[in-house]
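To whoever is covering the structure queue this week,

Two jobs came back overnight. Logging them here so there's a record in the thread.

Job A:
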Amino acid sequence: MRKLSQLHPSVAAFKSFVNRHPKLLEEIRKSGKGWQEFYEKWAILDEDDPFWNEYKTESTEADSESKNQDSKKSKKTDHSDLIRQIMDYTQNLDTEKVQGQIEQLSKAIGVVQEMIGDMKKPSANKTPRAPFSLRKD
């Protein structure tokens, strides 16, 4: 039998997921459904999907709730740090310089659009050429 370290990483992750959801193991044994079906659902839905809530035990649910609360706190902290960094950055900007750069970018985009428009228009001056030029000796 293969060890956990020899398994494919996704299979090892699914195995640890099943160990954290003992009711899933019971469901598979009772229903006779195959592992493949649940593995595919796990791969598609991810382990945080509400579908898996019925297979969790109470301690697993409490652990996940505390993890969710911790992640929400860290996300709030990350957002406030990001906003603070953006505010610091915008205070040091020279608005006239930024405006000039935006105008240059706008002109460059206009030139590119004009070139693309010229390429798309069929030219009346050009006559279609033969793909192969045949010359007589």
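Job B:
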Amino acid sequence: MSGSVGLSWDKGVSTTEDALTDTYTVFAGVSLRDKIGGELRAGAALSYLTSGSVDADPTPTTPGPGNSFAYTVGDDWSVAGTLSYAINW
């Protein structure tokens, strides 16, 4: 039997019109071997995505409809899981 547990943090960065949001994730996995040569693997992750917003940026040097566009994204959760079984011969 073996396993792992982890925690990660992704600091939101932006190069243009992206919302700056952070993501926090906790994850775990386990692997179990049986007597017939098989291996059961299971893993799960839970992520929290923070909220963020982009302000309108009317720039006279680059006019266009996108300059007056602003938006906000709310916080949210994400869940992932996996389960597999393999027999080696």
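Note for Job B: The mean pLDDT is 86.

Please reply-all if you pick these up so we don't duplicate work.
Q.
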